[in-house]
Amino acid sequence: MTQQTEVQQTVPKLKDHNIWQGGHETNPCAIVLFGATGDLAQRKILPTLAHLIHDHPQPETICIVAFARRPLGDEGWRAMVLESLDKYMAADDKLDDKGKQAFAQRLFYCQSNFDEDAGYQRLGQLLDTLDKEQHTGGNRLFYLATPPDTDAEIIEHLGKAGLAQPPKQNGNGKKSWVRIITEKPFGHDLASARSLNAQIGKVFHEDQIFRIDHYMGKETVQNIVAFRFANSIMEPLWNQKYIDHIQITVAESLGIENRAEYYETSGAIKDIVQNHVMQILSLIAMEAPADFSANDIRDEKVKVLRAICALTPEQVQERTVRGQYVAGEQDGKHVVGYKEEKGVSPQSTTETYVALKLFIENWRWADVPVYIRTGKHLPKRSTEVMVQFKRVPHQLYKPEQMKDLQPNRLILRIQPDEGIDLKIGAKVPGAANDLATIDLNASYKTVFGIELPEAYERLIADCIVGDSTLFIRRDEIEESWRIIDSITDTWKKMDPNTVYPYAAGTWGPEEADKLIQRDGRDWVNP
């Protein structure tokens, strides 16, 4: 009788990442959170701050001040935050009672409406008190986790109250700083973005402004730069001579999740393409910067966006596809259509899916199409970049020997399974000269054994140390909107029937497949 022993495999615990950059001085500061009782703050920002302070402690003090309308006071605010931490922090990140109480002691509350002058005066007095009692050193970080239409009002009042500049007396003799974080969307078109840039520029200098896009905080997005410029084998191939085309896919399996009020005014192109996709594309296509400084990197990103020409009305009709999900099946469950979602107009023409074909008009990328697609209620959640190389110039093998062979493809997986996948041709073992495609696959977590930082955590930490590399500069915002406006302006004049239906749980409308198939190519699904 053979005895079988069951071997239990244990998954090794991932090592903690280092969130504070070497060579950068961390500072004490007060983080003033506008919209502190809102959904974004409760779900994302406060749990991120709790994790950052608890798991990556620094000797310097960080205090968090809520600026909101509700009559809560310090204790009511602290109770609300601790409840949110219990609800929204990941199970393996939750704080014990001691950690909760330590975090709660960093929380302070300033009650005011956003348009109340006296409220900003009270805020200034509270910040001065924290400098003296909590030793925050006169450093202030204003975080606008608020609806975009309130940004200009808050910025104006901060300026009127004298809060946009550091205090002359900070209690420690060191030079203080004031910075401001604004959430996306930054404007809703080019004109509004320029107006908001002008308004914020009257109060804050550009080096004080940190326009946040959480995709830029993802480790895999930052690795695009490292992959390109830390490997000598890639640069000679990274151009129109060897690359056939590029695909960028941002697929979401969820619908609009009770965000109809926002989504009806944005749609997929403004929600995802204008910010996330354009940032990824600029990193994929940019030239090597002179060095790794924030401005040099952002200079090169802007050059990519400037090289993308605004689309003519004829090009919009030929190179773009809009879609809107209708009822379907997702993960074995029935899903209602977009027009049946709460708060959505039955006549809505808002796109929940968009596919585009763009060209970067420069020497490196001439005639290389970039295909972009994003959508709600697609079969799976995935963000990835697929770079397809050209076929070999002369094929030595017979067609029947290559039936399982694909062109070389490099896939950069941004989420959720972060890593790199390179598809290459190889001979199948045996006497025949049959070829097949094999995968060289590297998962970041497996290779490094390190837990990847949460995007907001990295970005907030960078703002505290004053590194703006991963934040979006004024000219980047405006160049991106220039491209998007050329598309949406034409969409407004097109027949509403050109918003094509697709069943929830599928990869989008047939017209999106035709867009790429007309060029003799196919979408590569994650």
TrEMBL record:
<dbReference type="GO" id="GO:0050661">
    <property type="term" value="F:NADP binding"/>
</dbReference>
<feature type="binding site">
    <location>
        <position position="214"/>
    </location>
    <ligand>
        <name>substrate</name>
    </ligand>
</feature>
<keyword id="KW-0313">Glucose metabolism</keyword>
<dbReference type="InterPro" id="IPR022675">
    <property type="entry name" value="G6P_DH_C"/>
</dbReference>
<keyword id="KW-0521">NADP</keyword>
<feature type="binding site">
    <location>
        <position position="271"/>
    </location>
    <ligand>
        <name>substrate</name>
    </ligand>
</feature>
<dbReference type="InterPro" id="IPR001282">
    <property type="entry name" value="G6P_DH"/>
</dbReference>
<protein>
    <recommendedName>
        <fullName>Glucose-6-phosphate 1-dehydrogenase</fullName>
        <ecNumber>1.1.1.49</ecNumber>
    </recommendedName>
</protein>
<feature type="binding site">
    <location>
        <position position="376"/>
    </location>
    <ligand>
        <name>substrate</name>
    </ligand>
</feature>
<dbReference type="GO" id="GO:0009051">
    <property type="term" value="P:pentose-phosphate shunt, oxidative branch"/>
</dbReference>
<feature type="domain" description="Glucose-6-phosphate dehydrogenase NAD-binding">
    <location>
        <begin position="32"/>
        <end position="223"/>
    </location>
</feature>
<dbReference type="GO" id="GO:0005829">
    <property type="term" value="C:cytosol"/>
</dbReference>
<comment type="function">
    <text>Catalyzes the oxidation of glucose 6-phosphate to 6-phosphogluconolactone.</text>
</comment>
<feature type="active site" description="Proton acceptor">
    <location>
        <position position="276"/>
    </location>
</feature>
<comment type="similarity">
    <text>Belongs to the glucose-6-phosphate dehydrogenase family.</text>
</comment>
<feature type="domain" description="Glucose-6-phosphate dehydrogenase C-terminal">
    <location>
        <begin position="226"/>
        <end position="523"/>
    </location>
</feature>
<dbReference type="Pfam" id="PF02781">
    <property type="entry name" value="G6PD_C"/>
</dbReference>
<feature type="binding site">
    <location>
        <position position="184"/>
    </location>
    <ligand>
        <name>NADP(+)</name>
    </ligand>
</feature>
<dbReference type="GO" id="GO:0004345">
    <property type="term" value="F:glucose-6-phosphate dehydrogenase activity"/>
</dbReference>
<dbReference type="Pfam" id="PF00479">
    <property type="entry name" value="G6PD_N"/>
</dbReference>
<feature type="binding site">
    <location>
        <position position="69"/>
    </location>
    <ligand>
        <name>NADP(+)</name>
    </ligand>
</feature>
<dbReference type="GO" id="GO:0006006">
    <property type="term" value="P:glucose metabolic process"/>
</dbReference>
<feature type="binding site">
    <location>
        <position position="218"/>
    </location>
    <ligand>
        <name>substrate</name>
    </ligand>
</feature>
<dbReference type="InterPro" id="IPR022674">
    <property type="entry name" value="G6P_DH_NAD-bd"/>
</dbReference>
<comment type="pathway">
    <text>Carbohydrate degradation; pentose phosphate pathway; D-ribulose 5-phosphate from D-glucose 6-phosphate (oxidative stage): step 1/3.</text>
</comment>
<keyword id="KW-0560">Oxidoreductase</keyword>
<dbReference type="InterPro" id="IPR036291">
    <property type="entry name" value="NAD(P)-bd_dom_sf"/>
</dbReference>
<feature type="binding site">
    <location>
        <position position="252"/>
    </location>
    <ligand>
        <name>substrate</name>
    </ligand>
</feature>
<keyword id="KW-0119">Carbohydrate metabolism</keyword>
